[in-house]
């Protein structure tokens, strides 16, 4: 139980150690990758070189032994040594071969008996092995035993009359000299690897520091944003990635500045819009207070003006509440399948009395039955604001044309009017909060400058788009496109 808990503690400690922030840094990973890229090839190269040297040395050693065996086998074949003819010279050559290569030489006759052994250990014994048998079949063999550090070579001794193997020469030589050379070479390779590792470590640390510097500068610039905006944009061109990151940061900074300016302007506009009716009400009430004996008609007139200002204040507050509510519920709209034809008909039914007061004709054209997943309250608010504006900013005896259409994917609602139109320079600003094209005319008809902002917010909440086409003096057309199926 103790051992298991101890292992868990160690494993947990190791995980926490490697989860530390410094091990997640780009600099550490660059250093780590450079070290791996420098050390691993060196280790592989060392192994390949040592293995290649060993194989080459064994091949050369084996070839030398095989040549010597071929020469001695020819001499043994013609001297009749296997038949019992003694030859001190050949014996001396066998011993010399054994001494030169630090090995052992044995001669085996057709009965697999050892008739000559330079170690004098196995004379008269029988040797039956796969190499000896293959050699009697006329195939010389060679084998390298790395574990026991020796090379074994067999060569056939041919009968000079029948040209068939009459015996086998078995030579075993030590590979200590190869192993010693390998040890020396490995020591040198280790020294080179250590030196190379030190150089790679230095290079990795320098590379890590140098390569991360542009990102540190970017981090500093981003951190400076918390202290306020300035005109010094980020221009870090060290790498392609930093160029892309700089461009993205600059765009974000511009957007943040625009949002900040928009927020300040919004607060200023809200303050102004709310303050204006309050100022008017204060002036009216002060006027009444300074005239204690004012006639009832004057009181009635001033109270009417106060009621209008209160109503204007109420409109502004309601529109602001609609915007706030739109922002809060943007991610969780109350979506349901609605009959868009009936929905638009109901909206126009409520607004036609207002249009008739200005002798404006409201026409609805539906190209086909349309059903869509929408938030009825929000989309109704958007359509209502567009049609109300088309009526308010129209000319006497004008018209408002509302059309409904759909394809396999989207629902299209178009609101066109014959009104005053929008100047080209104002088109891109009309969806901003409190923006008015004609401020004096807007005040006359009681506009708050929030209707189009509310409409756009409702359309965007439905993952849709709203566009405007207008020509000054000839009218304006708003087009809404929303998906038939709400995309969550």
UniProtKB/TrEMBL annotation:
Locations listed in the record: Membrane
Residues in Histidine kinase domain copies: 269-486
Cited Pfam families: HATPase_c, HisKA
EC number: 2.7.13.3
InterPro entries attached to this UniProt entry: BphY/WalK/GraS-like (IPR050351), HATPase_C_sf (IPR036890), HATPase_dom (IPR003594), His_kinase_dom (IPR005467), HisK_dim/P_dom (IPR003661), HisK_dim/P_sf (IPR036097), Sig_transdc_His_kin-like_C (IPR004358)
Protein name: histidine kinase
Catalytic activities: ATP + protein L-histidine = ADP + protein N-phospho-L-histidine
Enzyme class: transferase
SMART domains (alphabetical): HATPase_c (SM00387), HisKA (SM00388)
């Amino acid at each position: 139980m103790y051992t298991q808990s101890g292992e868990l503690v160690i494993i947990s400690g190791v995980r926490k150690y490697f989860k530390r922030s410094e091990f997640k840094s780009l600099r550490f990973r660059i250093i780590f990758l450079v070290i791996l890229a420098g050390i691993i090839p060196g280790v592989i190269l060392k192994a390949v070189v040592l293995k290649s040297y060993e194989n080459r040395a064994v091949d050369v050693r084996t070839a030398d032994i095989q040549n010597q065996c071929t020469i001695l086998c020819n001499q043994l074949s013609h001297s009749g040594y296997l038949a019992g003819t003694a030859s001190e010279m050949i014996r001396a050559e066998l011993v010399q071969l054994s001494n030169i290569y630090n090995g052992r030489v044995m001669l085996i006759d057709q009965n697999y008996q050892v008739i000559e052994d330079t170690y004098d250990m196995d004379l008269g014994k029988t040797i039956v092995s796969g190499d000896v048998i293959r050699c009697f079949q006329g195939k010389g063999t060679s084998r390298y035993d790395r574990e026991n550090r020796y090379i074994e070579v067999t060569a056939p001794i041919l009968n000079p009359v029948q040209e068939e193997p009459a015996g086998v020469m078995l030579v075993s030589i030590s590979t200590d000299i190869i192993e010693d050379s390998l040890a020396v070479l490995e020591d040198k390779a280790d020294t080179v690897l250590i030196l190379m590792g030190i150089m790679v470590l230095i290079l990795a640390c320098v590379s890590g520091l140098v390569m991360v510097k542009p990102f540190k500068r970017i981090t500093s610039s981003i951190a400076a944003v918390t202290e306020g905006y300035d005109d010094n944009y980020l221009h870090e061109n060290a790498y392609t990635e930093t160029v892309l990151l700089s461009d993205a940061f600059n765009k974000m900074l511009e957007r943040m500045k625009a949002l900040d300016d928009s927020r300040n302007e919004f607060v200023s506009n809200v303050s102004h819009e709310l303050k204006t009716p309050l100022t008017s009400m204060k002036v009216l009430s002060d006027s009444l207070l300074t005239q204690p004996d004012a006639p009832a008609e004057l009181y009635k007139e001033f109270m009417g003006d106060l009621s209008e200002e209160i109503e204007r204040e109420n409109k502004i507050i309601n529109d602001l509440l609609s915007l706030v509510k739109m922002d809060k519920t943007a991610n969780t709209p109350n979506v349901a399948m609605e009959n868009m034809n009936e929905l638009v008909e109901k909206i126009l039914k409520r607004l036609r009395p207002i249009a008739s007061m200005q002798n404006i004709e409201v026409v609805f054209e539906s190209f086909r039955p349309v059903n869509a997943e929408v938030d009825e309250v929000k989309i109704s608010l958007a359509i209502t604001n567009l049609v109300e504006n088309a009526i308010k900013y129209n000319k006497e005896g004008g018209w408002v044309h509302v059309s409904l259409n759909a394809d396999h994917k989207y629902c299209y609602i178009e609101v066109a009017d014959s009104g005053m139109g929008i100047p080209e320079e104002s088109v891109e600003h009309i969806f901003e909060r409190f923006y008015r094209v004609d401020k004096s005319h807007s005040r006359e008809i009681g506009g708050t400058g929030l209707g189009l902002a509310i409409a756009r917010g409702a359309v965007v909440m439905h993952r849709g788009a709203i566009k405007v086409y207008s020509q000054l003096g000839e009218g304006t057309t708003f087009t809404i496109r929303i998906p038939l199926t709400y995309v969550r």
